[in-house]
Specification:
The complex is a heterodimer of chains A (679) and B (340).
Chain A: H1 2-16, H2 28-34, H3 56-69, H4 73-92, H5 101-108, H6 120-125, H7 129-156, H8 161-165, H9 175-184, H10 192-207, H11 214-245, H12 249-262, H13 267-281, H14 286-289, H15 296-313, H16 319-334, H17 336-359, H18 366-378, H19 387-399, H20 402-412, H21 415-435, H22 439-452, H23 457-469, E1 477-479, H24 481-486, E2 512-520, E3 524-531, E4 534-541, H25 544-565, H26 569-574, E5 583-584, H27 587-594, E6 601-606, E7 611-616, E8 625-630, E9 635-642, E10 648-655, E11 658-665
Helix pairs in contact in A: 3-4, 4-5, 7-9, 7-10, 9-16, 10-11, 11-12, 11-13, 12-13, 15-18, 16-17, 18-19, 19-20, 20-21, 21-22, 21-23, 22-23
Chain B: H1 2-17, H2 22-25, H3 29-32, H4 43-52, H5 70-86, H6 104-118, H7 124-137, H8 141-152, H9 159-177, H10 185-205, H11 211-233, H12 240-254, H13 261-282, H14 292-310, H15 317-339
Classes of the chains: A alpha+beta (679), B mainly alpha (340).
């Protein structure tokens, strides 16, 4: 009896203990997948963690942390000094330094972040008075430099330094004049950088009112605030006046009230409000009461669209003003030949715009859509003019809203157009699915495609992709072999504990395929192992300790990448802030996919009349712009040449074998990141 | 075309050779932003610090990790980031985020747990003290007290500091846990006021960071509770809407320095918007009983509050307020047209 009980216990134990090696699956497909290498275990034996034994260095570090918590900076600096001396001794005796001194110093000298865009409050939270003023002044300086630099660059871009040195100065080109005119008529509105500076000045005055510089800063802040208020007032008045012109009296009323909130004494706003009041008292115009063509509004919108398209084709928005200057200067400097050049350039520009018009949607169709939809909404179906459906279908197609376009083509009864658009929509969704990083998103797109456009070619391809996506071994966080090799800690003894021979390239001792591994939700891992018939998936249960170790390493890795490279991608996955159903690839794999290695990304065209290429060198090389090709005049090559020590770049232009060099003041990099909070 | 290629080669070389050229100066924002260990000390900071402390060389700028001291290095990484961010005024500013964008208190607790698993038995008291700080930042007074007790019951140098924290946090915990015994709305409001007064008293007693900010946050939470209570019960209370307007105004006035001040203004605007909608629901704009002036008055109060936020610079609520202004504009125009 006892023996039976023991046997039963053993049997129960064997049955209940979760296997570390491959599982048995009831699903035939899973069993088949796991028949491959039935006895193989990919894990190395577990190692117990090292115990901690502190030495003198450890004690100094602990004491420095204590001093930091006790807010005793001199105590921390004392420990740092001792550690630095210890490091010097170690280095003198040929040993490696502890590498901890800088960490200790950082306990008392916490550096402010270089870029506070990620956490804008941080800039204000702990900043000292000097820090606040430095930040504000830096922003103002950058803005000033950019404004002045932009204006000078328009002028400088007309001077060919190389021709000057070669003793054959050329006449300045007139295109700079166009920019200068536009630049100087830009107004006095404070830029986002200046408005951000004002926030810093205000914070300074709020927190340090007794500072010696307070009076000076008050004046600066007052000047900026006056300009800011004026800009806001002008914006509201402009909106109100625009609404009034359109007889949108409620809109005008709203914006005049907003203008009064900015400046209570604004006479313009008060006069405007009185006008609005008067207009609201009047009875509706007679013309709105007389019968009108129901499609008039749509036709008007179409006419407006055509006008906008025509305006787009013209060179420059302020056509008369700007081009008078350009053409005038051109003719003045080069005579009638200059006028011809100007004319040729205008034609080239117009042709390029025509091309964009034919292939894209540079002028939005929103007005036509709004008018059409209003007509459809207001008119009963049997009273509608069927022409509106086609108009709306075409407008939606131009806007890229293919589902709406299809539904209107259906109403207009155009079968061929429907079929064409369905194929187009199917391909677009398939492309989006392929580009999706997350499996869930990919699956959503594929399902939508199969359900909404089942008869298209794209749907047939999507069905196969959907089947593959639903295989158990494909559902989870995928890490390619190259990624795992790039981050060895994740698979090493302190991570998943995978056997090193899986990565040694020797197929005889079992090798991981390029597809790598997939971490499945339930503490399991699918290994794609190289077999005779290509990669074969095999699922293993991961021991708890290994699972925890892996995620610990993963979190640490994520933190490091965020701290050192500013890339929070892995950290978001580790924290569960992003769904862990994507594929992690090595840097090289990503570069391969994006087509970036050493060659710059180039765009341009090759045609019967010439070649034209332009692009930007990869950031890792220089990040400068270049272009080359040939046009009606000659072959040319252009490249931005940055110079060391001085904030000036040169644009090198080679044409007809003769070099030209145009100087350009280097402007501050980009705009501020949180610009939308300062508009 | 050959000369193009010939010209490009020296140009490319010139771009790559000059050390001051934009190849180096135009580092991307992501690469520029870095922290421990390489950027723990900024170049300028490093210069001043090394000048101050003899024996320190510029080698501290890029410390090389020594495997023998990885236990200490890992600990310093966690404590540095925590110290860098956690000392900020949590009443005036939102809880700080670490380099990954996570709440620094929560992130530190996770990192300490990972540290403990990786280096079992190392620096237990420092870990407990840091945990205590993180828990108190999250207003988890019980958990913070438990961690501080680990330190106060040891012979560690932070023993006294931990004991002080226990004393303060025990008072915080007890006050927060005091039940609001009330049978009528008025009693409930009175008892909220009593607790608010008690938190104000604690602020006076503990005026140093982080406890003053914590007590202010607790006081603010009760003020918010008062507003929420009146908003929920405004139809049951006499002059309920007027009472809500009054407490909202008091809340905004009292907590001008709070990180939530713009949120309160938006919520107050929402309340006026709701009142305008309720007025329209009760009085058909197309009927004779609809009074445009009453409606516009409510709408304009909402407009004023939204506009105050929309016209502020550098706050995330600005975008929300702009959107709300647009919604209000459309709604007022619609009702205005109907009422004519």
């Amino acid at each position: 009896m006892n023996r039976n009980r023991v046997l039963l216990s053993v049997l129960l134990f064997v049955l209940l203990t979760p296997p570390v090696s491959a599982r048995e699956y009831s699903d035939p497909l899973m069993r088949k997948l796991n028949d491959f290498l039935p006895t193989y275990t990919p894990f190395t034996p577990l190692e117990s963690p090292d115990r901690y034994f502190p030495d003198e260095v450890g004690k100094k570090v602990a004491d420095a942390i204590v001093q930091a918590y006790l807010q005793n900076p001199s105590g921390v600096e004392q420990r740092a000094r001792e550690l630095a001396e210890h490091d010097s001794k170690l280095v003198t005796s040929g040993e490696q330094a502890t590498g901890l001194t800088s960490y200790l110093l950082a306990l008392v000298n916490q550096p402010p972040p270089k870029d506070d865009a990620g956490d804008p409050d941080f800039a204000l939270a702990g900043a000292s008075p000097d820090d606040l003023l430095q930040r504000a002044d830096r922003l103002l300086g950058e803005e000033k430099r950019e404004r002045v630099g932009r204006r000078f660059n328009w002028i400088l871009s007309t001077f060919d330094v190389a021709s000057l040195f070669l003793g054959a100065p050329r006449a300045p080109t007139p295109y700079g004049a166009q920019g200068i005119v536009s630049e100087w008529s830009g107004g006095n509105d404070p830029a986002p950088r200046e408005r951000k500076a004002l926030v810093f000045y205000r914070e300074f005055l709020r927190r340090f009112p007794d500072d010696a510089r307070a009076a000076e800063i008050t004046q600066k802040a007052r000047d900026l605030e006056t300009r800011r208020k004026q800009a806001m007032l002008d914006a509201e008045l402009a909106r109100a006046e625009a609404a009034f012109k359109k007889r949108d009296y409620w809109g005008a009323n709203f914006h005049y009230h907003l203008a009064l909130m900015v400046d209570e004494s604004s006479t313009k706003a008060r006069t405007g409000l009185a006008q609005v009041e008067a207009s609201l008292q009047q009875k509706e115009d007679l013309d709105t009461a007389t019968p009108r063509d129901p499609l008039a509004e749509i036709k008007q919108a179409q006419w407006e669209h055509e006008k906008q398209t025509f305006t787009y084709l013209l060179p420059g928005s302020g056509f008369v003003k700007d081009n008078f200057v350009v053409a005038g200067t051109q003719i003045a400097t080069e005579g009638l030949a200059g006028a011809a050049t100007f004319g040729a350039l205008t034609v080239v520009q117009t042709i390029a715009k025509l091309f964009r018009l034919a292939t894209g949607n540079p002028v939005p169709q929103q007005q036509v859509i709004t008018a059409g939809e209003r007509y459809v909404h207001d008119t009963p179906p049997d009273e509608r003019n069927p022409q509106v459906y086609e108009t709306l279908a075409k407008a939606y197609e131009k806007e890229g809203r293919l589902d709406k376009a299809i539904s209107y083509y259906k109403l207009s009864g155009e079968e061929e157009e429907q079929a064409r658009l369905k194929e187009q929509a199917g391909s677009a969704i398939l492309q989006m699915a392929k580009k999706s990083e997350h499996q869930e998103q990919k699956e959503d797109y594929l399902r939508k495609l199969v359900e909404q456009y089942p008869t298209t070619k794209a749907a047939r391809e999507a069905a196969q992709l959907l089947r593959d996506l639903n295989l158990p071994a494909n559902r989870g966080l995928r890490l390619t072999k190259a990624f795992l090799q790039e981050h060895e800690e994740l698979t090493g003894p302190n991570g998943l504990g995978l056997k090193p021979e899986l990565f040694d390239g020797d197929v005889d001792n079992v090798e991981l395929a390029e597809e790598g591994i997939t971490l499945l939700g339930s503490g399991e891992v699918a290994l794609q192992l190289q077999g005779d018939r290509g990669p074969q998936a095999k699922i293993y249960a991961i021991p708890n300790q290994r699972w925890e170790q892996f995620w610990r390493q993963f979190r640490e890795k994520g933190y490091e990448q965020a701290a050192k490279r500013g890339d929070p991608g892995l950290a978001l996955l580790a924290q569960g802030a992003e769904a862990a159903d994507r594929t992690l690839k090595s840097t090289r794999e990503k570069n391969d996919e994006e087509g970036w290695h050493m060659l710059p990304y180039l765009s341009g065209s090759v045609g019967g009349s010439g070649v034209d290429f332009r692009g930007t060198l990869p950031k890792e090389i220089a990040g400068t712009r270049l272009s080359f090709g040939n046009d009606q005049r000659s072959t040319y090559v252009g490249m931005e040449v940055p110079l060391p020590f001085i904030p000036v770049d040169f644009l090198f232009l080679g044409r007809n074998g003769l070099p030209s060099l145009y100087p350009r003041i280097r402007l501050p990099e980009q705009s501020i990141k949180d610009e939308n909070l300062y508009r | 075309m050959k000369w193009i290629v010939v010209s490009l080669i020296p140009l490319a070389c010139s771009v790559c050779i000059f050390p001051g050229c934009s190849l180096w100066s135009r580092s991307s924002p992501t690469t520029a932003r870095s922290s421990a260990p390489a950027a723990i000390i900024h170049k300028n900071d490093n210069l001043t610090v090394t000048n101050l402390i003899p024996g320190l060389t510029s080698t501290t700028e890029t410390p090389e990790s020594n495997p023998q001291y990885v236990t200490e290095e890992d600990l310093l990484k966690v404590v540095n980031e925590f110290q860098r961010l956690a000392a900020k005024d949590s009443y005036r500013f939102p809880l700080p985020k670490d380099v990954t964008g996570a709440n620094v208190y929560k992130a530190t607790l996770t990192r300490l747990q990972d540290y403990e698993a990786k280096h079992p038995g190392a620096y237990g008291e420092i870990l407990a003290f840091t945990r205590g700080r993180a828990y108190e930042g999250l207003h988890e007074y019980d958990k913070a007290i438990a961690q501080y007790q680990v330190v106060s019951q040891s012979k560690h140098a932070l023993k006294e500091e931990a004991a002080k924290a226990i004393e303060i946090l025990t008072r915080f915990r007890d006050l927060k846990g005091t039940p609001l015994a009330a049978t009528t709305p008025l009693d409930y409001l009175k008892s909220l006021d009593q607790q608010i007064a008690a938190w104000q008293e604690l602020q006076k007693q503990y005026p140093n960071p982080p406890y003053e900010a914590l007590a202010k946050e607790e006081e603010e939470r009760l003020d918010q509770a008062k507003v929420a209570f009146l908003v929920i019960n405004r139809h049951r209370i006499e002059d309920g809407n007027e009472s809500v307007v009054l407490v909202y105004s008091q809340l905004i006035e009292k907590h001008k320095e709070s990180k939530h001040q713009y949120r309160y203004q938006i919520e107050f605007g929402d309340f006026y918007f709701t009142l305008a909608q309720e007025y329209v629901a009760q009085n058909d704009p197309q009927s004779l009983q609809f009074d445009p002036l009453t409606f516009e008055g409510l709408g304009r109060s909402a407009l004023r509050l939204y506009a105050q936020v929309a016209q502020e610079d550098g706050i995330i609520e600005k975008l929300e307020a702009k959107g709300k202004l647009e919604a209000l504009e459309a709604y007022m125009a619609k009702v205005g047209k109907l009422s004519r």
